[in-house]
Amino acid sequence: AAAVNGGAAAPVAEGRTAILSHPLCREHFTCAPLHHGSADPPPENVNRLKVLLDYPNGVLRAGEFAECEFSDDAQRASLGDVVRVHDWAYVRNLQTKCAVLHDFCADGSTPEMGVPVGAQMPFAHLDGDTVISARTYEAALRAAGSVIEGVDRVMSGRNRNVFCAVRPPGHHAGMRGVVTNDNDDSGSHGFCLLNNVGIAAAYARHVYRGRVDKVAIVDFDVHHGNGTEEVVRNLVPTHEEYEMKTPMASVSMRTEKWKPWLNEEDPDKVLFVSSHGYGKKSEELEHVPGHWFYPGSGSTCVPPGGSDPSTTPEDVRAAESDYLGGYESETRADKHRILDLGLGLATREVSGTARNRFRDGYRKVILPRIMAFNPDLILISAGFDGHKKDDINFGYLSLVEEDFEWVTDELIKVANSCCEGRVVSVLEGGYAIKGAHVSAFARSAQAHVRALLNGSRFARPYDQRYCEWESKLERDFLEKAKERQERKNKETLMQLYHGGGIDTGGAANDVPLPLASPSSIDVATAPMLGTPQLPVGTIAPDSAAPAAETPATGGGAVPASAASAVSAASAASA
């Protein structure tokens, strides 16, 4: 099994995965309860947590997660922890706006009963996207507090990794909430209020200063984590200029902006990585002003090389020229440790192309960069709105649940190699909840936590050789799929030319990549050395998996990185 695992796995003695939440996260109401036949609710609503945590059908209550430690009593994040990241004026404004709203829970009424005569309104809109209610501020503090507790748990060794199933989300929340950019000068909160992952990262640097020197934040939500990026940029002192205009004159004001977490070394000690969609909402809008995919920021960039030469701007440019690959916009470098991977609209030329591009972005750019950074703690902003069935992504990424399991598994391997497996993951986006516990969102979150749990059982190290082999396997498969599609297209044209009609069966673009969940193949069936035994109908590459020096220990399923390369549904024959 070691040959397909990408390295030997050692049993882990530390505590298993913890799943944290808080009841107040369900009292952040964004709409009144809807009934059959009513309009659709806003994407971010309380049902997102219900499909994960409700008894008995919440996906995280399934038997496979019986080993996990559940907790729902996190403390509020303290004001001191919050204002390391956010301005007090912004926090006070949020607190004040929530305080004047009608509190259903306080007077015993419910949203279904309506608002009593003379009472305040139950909801307020911060912008076109984001709604708050009476207990939203408290819910946001508990959400941030849950992530802080997650940091405490992994640092104490109580749990090897943690998943925080909380809301409201936070990765679009900057120092003062809304973050603007050149493509969107108004911006929006994007459902986010307090930057949970940023608050936790600052807490880790400040409280565990003797043990947490470096923190890596990895965001795989389909939307750029612009709020978290601004928080990281604020670790470097900058100046802000304001212009005040009156009918008689205008006045310019210049102020300094700096939000350190610990000291002046913060910029070199924090790495922020975001993989996301970047570009226009559709190809037809490419030359039309505006219409950017939210939030309109996140063009591809890598941090300066410096003492971190393993991934350079040239690496990203090389990735841009890869077959069926490519990352949007240009590479730039600045003095912050920020790595943005802006992925364009998913092409439908060959099925699986977008998924391969996402994975190759991690294999060739992101994972080597994190390894070179060598963090003491990894925080994950886990957004599942890149799933192909989530309408909010406008066709960007087009991932499936196995991809979220794969990327989580790879990040755990990096954590095993760098920081004794310490990973804290916090829920961000993911809104495809139709179907409840069998919805795309539920299955994606389930796959993510499954990878965390598997990572708490066995400590598999990161192996760049295996990533290279796995990438070649997928590329070879895509090459063959493209050849079959071209052959099919030629046959179709010949049928049209000769008047024979069109055979629509077995469309070539329905051929899947050999990417699958780790549960689809058992260790006992995997070869120890050499080329993996691919399912019938799958095209085998010329190269073999790199042989590991020592066999893996333990039983169970092969991790997602191995299974993604050695099993899947058989390819449709052309």
UniProtKB/TrEMBL annotation:
Residues 537-574 are annotated as: Disordered. GO terms for biological process: epigenetic regulation of gene expression. GO terms for molecular function: histone deacetylase activity. Residues 43-437 form the Histone deacetylase domain. Residues 540-574 have a biased composition (Low complexity). It comes from the Eukaryota. One of its GO terms (cellular component) is histone deacetylase complex. This is Histone deacetylase domain-containing protein. It comes from Phaeomonas parva.
